[in-house]
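quick one: NAP bound model?
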Amino acid sequence: MHRVAITGADGMLGQDIVRMLTETDVEITQLDINNVDITEKNALIEVISDISPHVIINCAAYTNVDACESNRGTAFSVNAKGAGNVAAAAQKNHAMIIHTSTDYIFDGSKKGPYNE
Ligand SMILES: NC(=O)c1ccc[n+]([C@@H]2O[C@H](COP(=O)([O-])OP(=O)(O)OC[C@H]3O[C@@H](n4cnc5c(N)ncnc54)[C@H](OP(=O)(O)O)[C@@H]3O)[C@@H](O)[C@H]2O)c1
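yep, here:
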């Protein structure tokens, strides 16, 4: 059975994905800031290694756009470094990572996929 870990699982996107995956035969582990803070790299890697997921779906984010403008340090810590920590945990466990972006950055006007 495929194991899927969802970070930020309590959020809007996370809950939608949980609902969607509940109807499939994958084993879901829901993680949120109460279980593990994605800014804490070592703790995150430890938690992810215990799960040993095939796929990590990162839905954890600091999403209050106005607060991001005034708290740039927190925004960078969660949305940049935190996302990097999830990627590091994925790499360590040979897991695929799925990370969503936002239309605040990618407005959909490009007619085709983006390069990494
Ligand atoms: N919703 C949409 O329509 C939409 C559309 C396009 C893209 N996206 C993208 O999808 C992602 C999630 O969006 P969302 O709308 O689901 O946001 P959301 O409802 O705010 O969910 C984000 C979740 O991440 C958690 N979180 C925050 N900091 C964390 C940390 N350091 N470690 C672990 N978890 C943390 C939040 O917990 P707290 O609530 O306790 O802070 C919350 O449960 C974002 O990257 C967003 O840009 C969303």
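The longest helix spans residues 72-92.
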